[in-house]
Amino acid sequence: MSTVAEPRSPYARTASSGTNWEKWGWMYMRASGVVLVVLIFGHLFVNLMVGEGVKAIDFAFVAGKWATPFWQYWDLAMLWLALIHGANGMRTIVNDYSSSVVLGKVLRGAIYASAAILIILGTLVIFTFDPCPSVSPEQLGLLPSFCPPQ
User: Fold this and answer.
1) Which of 111, 121, 136, 147 could join 143 via S-S bond, C-beta 3.0 to 4.6 A?
2) Which CATH code fits 23-131?
3) 65 burial level (CB within 10 Å; 0-12, 13-18, 19+)
4) What is the pLDDT of residues 29-41, one digit of tens each?
5) Between residues 65 and 36, the one the model is more confident about
6) C-alpha distances in angstroms, 36 versus 20, 58, 68, 90, 92?
């Protein structure tokens, strides 16, 4: 009584119900990897090659960059793709190496939760970033020098 089919027996494809999530996860990894390479090299080129190089990257540089919606969406796409790409890779590792069903579910839940929290927080930082917030008179010295007096 063998549970493995004979080597020369014809392959019997079983009817699957629903979506093949492993196939779509595999395809996402390839597509997001290509897009991430473009986004990351564009990010590095603008931050390190254009202008004064790495010595110019400071609070004012980020504030000026995020004042333009183009760079907000560029960084948002990089954030979302990188976090989902990494979470999908970690999910694959958990699926391959988890020793029990319960442990796999707990680890995948932790991966999904941490990715969701980081995506939400990163998105909030990108779109709510204000380099010149309104502050009390005692805190005026804490504002960057390029902020107008209030």
Assistant:
1) 147
2) 1.20.1300.10
3) middle
4) 999 999 999 999 9
5) 36
6) 24, 24, 21, 17, 19
